[in-house]
Amino acid sequence: MAKAFAAAALLTLAQPGIAEQETAGDASFLSSLEGRFSGNGTLQNAGGSSRSLKCRFNGDQEGARLSLDGSCSTAAIFSATIRIELRHDPKTGRYAGTFRESTGTVANLSGQRQGQRLTLAFNETAESVRPNPPATLTISRQQDGVALTLRGSQLGQGQTLDLSLREN
Asked: 89-92: long-range contacts at Cβ-Cβ below 8 A with a sequence spacing of 24 or more?
C-alpha cells in the first residue's frame, strides 16, 4: 500500500500542474493566431441595415501579447482599419486589451479563454465617437482560420460583426 501511494505521489509530482498546462495552452492559443488571415463577413447596424465586408488581418504574437491588425472594406468604398491588442496574465488566466477602429470605436477588452474560444467583454470608452452599449467580442480559432464575432448586449442597439477568416 505504501509503495502504491509513493508511486501515485511521484506520478502526480512528475505531471505538469493544471496552472502550467493552462499557461501552455494559452501560449499555444496565442501563437495559433499569428500569421495572415483573410475572408468575408457582415456588419449589421442597429437599424437593421447590413454591409458585406472583405477583410485582411495580420496576427503578431510575442510571449503573452498578441496584436491583430486588420482592414475591412465594402464594395461601396467604405474602409476601416482595426487593431486588437491583447495580453494574457498567466497568474490570473485572464486576457485584457484594447480594440481600436479607424471610424472612431475604442473599447477596452477583458475576458478568458475556453478551449479554442476567447470571450471578451467589449466596453467602449469615452474616446469612442458613437459609444454603444457593452458588447461581447469572441475570437475563435478554427481548423482553417479564425472567426471574429461582436455582439451587443442590448438587442437592437450597437453593431453586430461576423467575420470568417482563413489562414493564408
From this structure: 89/64, 90/19, 90/23, 90/26, 90/64
List pLDDT tens digits, range 132-145.
889 999 999 998 89
- Lookup result for grid cell 471578451: 120
pTM of the model: 0.82
Which of helix, strand or coil describes residue 125? coil
Which three cell numbers, joined as nine digits, stand for 87?
A: 495580453
pLDDT tens-place string over residues 95-130: 999 999 998 999 999 999 999 999 999 999 999 998
Q: Closest by alpha carbon to 123, among 139, 137, 135, 112?
A: 135
Gyration radius (Cα) of the chain, Å: 19
